[in-house]
Amino acid sequence: MTAEPPSAFAYLGPAGTYHDEAARAFAKRLGIDDPQLIECPSLSEVFDCVDRGKCEYGVVATENALEGPVTATLDNFAFRSSATILGEHVLDIHHCLIMHPEATLNDVKTVASHPQGLAQCRRYLNDNLHGIPTVTVASTADSARRAASDKSVAGIGNDFAAQLYGARVAETGIEDHFGNQTSFALIGRQGHVPVLTGSKFKTSLALFLQADRPGALLMILSEFAYAGINLVKIQSRPTKQALGDYMFFVDIEGSTQDLEVQTALNCLRLKLREVKVLGSYPVE
Amino acid sequence: MTAEPPSAFAYLGPAGTYHDEAARAFAKRLGIDDPQLIECPSLSEVFDCVDRGKCEYGVVATENALEGPVTATLDNFAFRSSATILGEHVLDIHHCLIMHPEATLNDVKTVASHPQGLAQCRRYLNDNLHGIPTVTVASTADSARRAASDKSVAGIGNDFAAQLYGARVAETGIEDHFGNQTSFALIGRQGHVPVLTGSKFKTSLALFLQADRPGALLMILSEFAYAGINLVKIQSRPTKQALGDYMFFVDIEGSTQDLEVQTALNCLRLKLREVKVLGSYPVE
């Protein structure tokens, strides 16, 4: 009998990222008070940690309301990993201007953040730090860490990172679009028992077509329509074989425990190259 | 009568990018021997140049075989610009290791490139420059420029950029996936007369749904199927209003000059919030 993998959470680090926040939220929902959190340098390594049983759970961003799907996550689900989605968590994204505790706006010579942090606060930077050069760093947490140690650097990230690294939040809610959100998936090893309950379920699928065949997507949507299953989301991704060759990610309402979902998936299995069930989990 | 905009090409600079290569390819197809090329710092500014009549043409990447759609381009088409697609060009992407003319591999202390250049040559870097730190720069052309002036920096980009900046191509075809391609669109101001001819046409559309309505995508695909129109591509993008709220980019075979295309689009106009025709242009 092999040892159970420790009930730790692998997430895209460093400490203080939005991934870190999401991992703590999942731990709370699982009733784990003092979760063991394992920083990973890339999303692929979060998947590897879970697939190899090094961590029981992984937390990966799947989609941002402004930027769209997180393609590195989708590619891992489609082409690399056998992990199962156990749950989802939607995080409100509020960027803060983060500064050294003793710095004022006049001290700022550079604004450092993740490219998306900079892009999502363009209007604020233009109005308040006009002409100040921006530099990209690997994460919003890194930008908080740099701001905490250098008066001439302002960062953009969440207030959690600012606190963690001992920096000051000079202003909150500096994002251009109000209402920005990121959706995260809790993943476990293939076959992991469900850990979250709910009244409504969702099932995520990766569908691989037979060599480019006209009408395939229409057929897929018709199967779900006939079964009375609502689509939550559909997203195409290149298969990386040739330009214009796609596979589809589809989220449907319902669980693989439901008879109508089973029937629709069995019909699709007869016609498609592969139907990969990424997981059935409660809608948040 | 206003002056005609100069027949210049706006592209995502600096000189030596893959955009630059694509702009030259379009100019050649238009029979322009010595094209005036205008560098822009962002894709949005390429669109602005065209929309404001500062340049007659713009060149924007639409999709890469590995990375998928270029979201900044799609968002400009959907939400900002009224430009028309006049043509497409598919460029084979072959990355080179670019070095100072007098440097050898032993001199290299850093590998600098655009994040996609680095990501697409990961295996080569691991096998040949293992442990050498990588830094990201704004473009593959920038990486060639840096390599040309610093023996300790190796860049990753096209041989065109290496030549342009006086650097040396140390190795060609260093990309992990052979057969990588990027598709570019030639854009002109709304209503621009067609400039390229061909036997087969393609039409690009941006479709905006009425507030989230189940079955909308099935209805869209059914309209095209009934009209006997093949779909080339479909891509969803967030509307940036709320997580899970999408619009669709659809490429279909045929031209808006074709009766069956006109009928299908008129049917869709009766049901959707907006049908934006991005252009009809010859298939390359």
Automatic annotation (TrEMBL), chains A, B:
Sorted UniProt keywords: Amino-acid biosynthesis, Aromatic amino acid biosynthesis, Lyase, Phenylalanine biosynthesis
Domain of life: Bacteria
Family matches, as Pfam families: ACT, PDT
GO MF annotations in UniProt: prephenate dehydratase activity
EC number: 4.2.1.51
InterPro entries: ACT-like_dom_sf (IPR045865), ACT_dom (IPR002912), Chor_mutase/pphenate_deHydtase (IPR008242), Preph_deHydtase (IPR001086)
Prephenate dehydratase domain boundaries: 8-189
GO biological process: L-phenylalanine biosynthetic process
Catalytic activity from the UniProt record: prephenate + H(+) = 3-phenylpyruvate + CO2 + H2O
GO cellular component, one term: cytoplasm
Essential for prephenate dehydratase activity, annotated site positions: 182
Pathway(s): Amino-acid biosynthesis; L-phenylalanine biosynthesis; phenylpyruvate from prephenate: step 1/1
Matches recorded under CDD domains: ACT_CM-PDT, PBP2_PDT_like
Domain ACT intervals: 205-282
Protein name: Prephenate dehydratase
